Amino acid sequence: MPLALLALAVVAFGIGTTEFVTMGLLPQIADGVGVSVPHAGNLVSAYALGVVVGAPLLTGMGARVPHKRLLLILSGVFVVGNTASALAPNFALLFAARVLAGLPHGALFGVGAVVAAKLVAPDRAARAVSTMFLGLTVANIVGVPVGTALGQQLGWRYAFAAVSAIGVAALVALVLLIPHQPRGAQSGVMHELRAMKNKQVMLGLVTAVVGFGGYFAVYSYLVPMLTHLTGISDASTTLVLALFGVGMTVGTLVAGPLTDRALRPTLYAGFALLAASLVALYFTIGQLVPALVVITIVGALSSLITTPVQMLLMTKAHEAPTMAAASNHSAFNLANAGGAWLGGLVIAAGWGWSSPALVGAALAVVGLGLAVTGGYLDRDGRGSKVVTTSGTVREPYETDEGSATAGSACKPGAH
Fold it and tell me: Where does this one sit in the cell (predicted)?
């Protein structure tokens, strides 16, 4: 794997840290800007709003910009948004700053995934993309706990300032390590939007919203589930969340090679096993050791399906994959909102703190059904075309499940 993927992983690390560190600092932020903790919780929604809006908007605006330059611009917006978050004097400006910080999130992951796939041979494309995603999972193990501790000890502003410093480090790494990748003559927002009309792309995005909604239905309430049912202390939940992040990292490492070998079977197995593990969590959440084992497995399976979904969208949007890859992260945030809402509904209805696990399992099963439907529609056996260099299209190799996997003819380090 080329060293350039390290730069993309640093970007993903910064994004993962800033997305989740706010949740652990809500009491401190609420005190700092003079609002209630529930009101401060709207800052999480503000970031998600920025992601949902920014992914298609910024990707479209940068459709003719060379990928390296676009990555630098988006990373600059990321730094500005987090710096503004650290300096915001009141809640209104902090809310606006969190929206700004979220705007480049989806576009950075989308452009980064396309760049990563172009850095390697076609049969290693998924591994390259999953390497970038490792930065996100490591953020859950290191970035979020360290950022939360920093914010609790020195003040919440220091946490956002630290994220800005990570963004600056990412900018330097991108400048030094990412090769120039020109856009072709056909590039442009209309070219990207035409690729989004593919029914498999739209079905893939719906699959992401529903299927990942199952994961977020549980993750959103994991801390109260643990404290109310498992009996662990509030202080110990940080270690449990780090354990969840370890599972995510393992799942990401496994997802790359499996997706390169068999994209759709990996996706099917991921959703099926995620549903089964969430059912298991429902029955084991009251027992500490079994619950910790299952929580780690749930973390691994949630990441196992991330890479194949991303690669499926890039493959089916073949001639213009950037918009589809970025929109996937809008879908993730819609899944976050929808899953959390459904999980909250069943708790409020009196079904108990463990009930979100069953909601999550049901959503994962529906996600599996949507994924299988997409596979059935692909039974005509026609492979998708994949952009290898900007403006150049080639027929991809076939995986053993009969569909194409996105990739690139560019060699590692090629300019």
Answer: Cell membrane
- Which burial class, exposed, middle or buried, applies to 38 when counting CB atoms under 10 A from its CB (0-12, 13-18, 19+)? exposed
**Can you read off the two tokens belonging to residue 129?**
């993309």
Orientation of helix 42-61 relative to helix 91-118, angle to 10°: 50
pLDDT in tens, 339-383: 888 888 888 888 988 999 999 999 999 999 999 999 988 775 444
DSSP 8-state code for residue 226: I
Where do we find the tokens 């909250």? Answer: 344
Residue 146 CA: distances (Å) to CA of 117, 138, 140, 385: 31, 12, 10, 43
Q: Distances in Å between the alpha carbon of 355 and those of 273, 352, 385?
A: 18, 6, 43
Q: 378 Cβ partners below 8 Å, 6+ apart? A: 200, 264, 402, 403
Sketch out the chain's domains with CATH numbers.
4-394 (1.20.1250.20)
pTM above 0.90, yes or no: no
- Phi and psi at residue 200, in whole multiples of 5°? -70, -35
